[in-house]
Every structure is written in C-alpha cells, then in structure tokens.
Amino acid sequence: MIGSLARIGPNHLLTNDLIAMQNILAVRLKYTRSAWYDSLRLDPHRSNLVTERNSQKHSRLRHQLSTGYGGKDIESMENAIDTRLKEWIYLIDRAWVSGPWETRKFDIGRSIQFLMTDIISHLSFGEPLGFVQHQKDMHDFFRTLETRLRIVEQFSVLTEFNTLLVKLSSIKWLKRKLIPSATDHHGVGRILRVSSRPSRSLMDKRFAGSDSIATALSATLLNIIINPSVCASLQAEIDTAVARGVLTDIVQNDEVNRELSYLQACIKEGLRIFPPITALRERVTPPEGDTINGYHVPGGMNIGLNM
Question: Which of 92, 105, 116, 187 might form a disulfide with 210, Cβ 3.0–4.6 angstroms?
Fold first, then answer.
C-alpha cells in the first residue's frame, strides 16, 4: 500500500483518493470499463446501459436513454410518484401505526424497497407491480435478486467465471437453466415478461436504480433517527414550513429546493456517510499507463474505486 493506493490483486489496485477518482471517471480520458461490469449482466450475451464496456456504445446508449431516464418524456412524473407515496402513507397509517395497547412491528427498510420498486414500475409500465398494496415480495423478485447478488459478488472478483458463463449459456438447454427468461413464472424472469413494453435497457437501468435509492433512503433515515438533535432540527424546519403554508400534503421538488434547506443537507450527509453503491466499479488504465498519487501505474491495470 502506498498512500491512498493499494494493491488488492496481481493486476488490481484500489484507491480512495477523490482527485484520482475524478480523473479516472473523467469523460474524455482513456480509461475503459473492466471485466468487472460483465458480472452485472442479466444475460451474459447482452449489455445494457449499466454493463456496456465499449465507450462509444455506452455513450450512444446514454444519449438514447437520457430523456427517458431523466423523466422528461414521462407525462406527469411527479404526480405518479405522489400517487405511490399517498398509497404507501395510507397503508402505514392503516396497518402499521401502534396503538396504546398494541405495538406493531414494521420493517420500514423492506417497505421502502417495495415503495421504490412500485414507483419505478409505475414510471416504466404505467402501473405499479403491487409490492406496496400487497406488502409482500411479488414474484419472489427481491429474494431472487438477493440470492443472485451473492453470485455476482463472486463473479466480479473471479471474472473468468463470466467467460465460462458466456460459453455455457451458448448451449441451448443450459441457457434455460442459467439465464433469467421472460417465460419464468417468478423472480427476475417474471419482471422481464412485464417489461416487454418499454425499452429493455431503460428497464434494466431503472430497476438497478430502485434498489440503490431504497438503500440511500433507509440509511439516511436511520442516521437521522439515531441523532436526536438532527431529528429535532429537521422536524422543526418541516413544522415551520407547514405552519407558514408553503408545503403541499405531498411535498413537491421545487418546495424542497425553496423551503427545506436542512432536509437537503441531511440527504447529502446521508449519502456521504453511507454511499448506496460501494462496489469496485473497476476501470482499466490506458495502454500508456497513468500517474496516480505521484506513482506511475502501467497500462492494463484494473483500478477499483473505494467509496
């Protein structure tokens, strides 16, 4: 280990230096995505916006999907989000609020996952998948993802497994057993069947984002709750804004920007304390190498980002 640069494998380095990360992730530099990204593919023969390693193809995908992913082509996007929030709050009030003679257990972390998945599916398909309404893991979606995540973690370290998976899944009868399909009745395959209406790449990206958003919300909420002074200050800001009549029942984005500066600070601090995406996301140094923290790193080295 040299300063903020550490060797974690024969051809793998890790850095937590923010300036180095900015340079590595800069748009016009020659760093490319490593084989680490192959482990995230649902289908090893098909890339999406998250997993595409070719820089030109990735840029083209970003351009094609930027409007849709940014919500600019989704009619009444904030109204759709408000509808899902109202349903979630109503169900909490009806089913999960404890009374004077009863304490009800409520897994808010899992419920936030349900909420975010319903929001994403509403924006993508025009209707939610029903996670919040039924308060359960529809189609075993999360169970499948959480089981698959342990496999992905192994594949992201031993990237040779990805090459082996590509070859094995080229065999027709093996592919049906190894790769999620829209003909499946549960898990990721069931969601793929529902997602046949919008762009597949857009669906992949949005659903990938739903879990990280849920993680960020849960972690930020936890840090607010366990810090009484922060919780009190935030509550006071909200109460003051409500008393002034400057917030609607479901607070809108422009109201947050205009009236709730302490809430914005809490969100930013929550993301700083607990970044929802902590994987390596390795990049490969260009053929001529690069200088990181004053040390020359040869070409072809995998540089992981330690958040």
Answer: 116
Which residue is listed with tokens 């709750």? 225
pTM, entire model: 0.77
Beta bridge partners of 15: 5, 305
Three-class DSSP labels, the chain: CECCEEEEECCEEEECCHHHHHHHHCCCCCCEECHHHHHHCCCCCCCCCCCCCCHHHHHHHHHHHHHHHCCCCCCCHHHHHHHHHHHHHHHHHHHCCCECCECCCCCHHHHHHHHHHHHHHHHHHCCCCCHHHHCCCHHHHHHHHHHHHHHHHHHHHCCHHHHHHHHHCCCHHHHHHHCCCCCCCCHHHHHHHHCCCCCHHHHHHHHHHHHHHHHHHHHHHHHHHCCHHHHHHHHHHHHHHHHCCCCCCCCCHHHHHHHCHHHHHHHHHHHHHCCCCCCCCCEECCCCCEEECCEEECCCCEEEECC
How far apart, in whole angstroms, are the C-alpha atoms of residue 222 and residue 218?
6
Per-residue pLDDT tens over the stretch 238-285? 999 999 999 998 898 889 999 999 999 999 999 999 988 777 889 999
The neighbouring-strand residues paired with 305 are: 15
Query: How do residues 225-241 score in pLDDT, each as one tens digit?
Result: 999 999 999 999 999 99
CA angle, residues 160, 33, 195, in degrees to nearest 5: 85
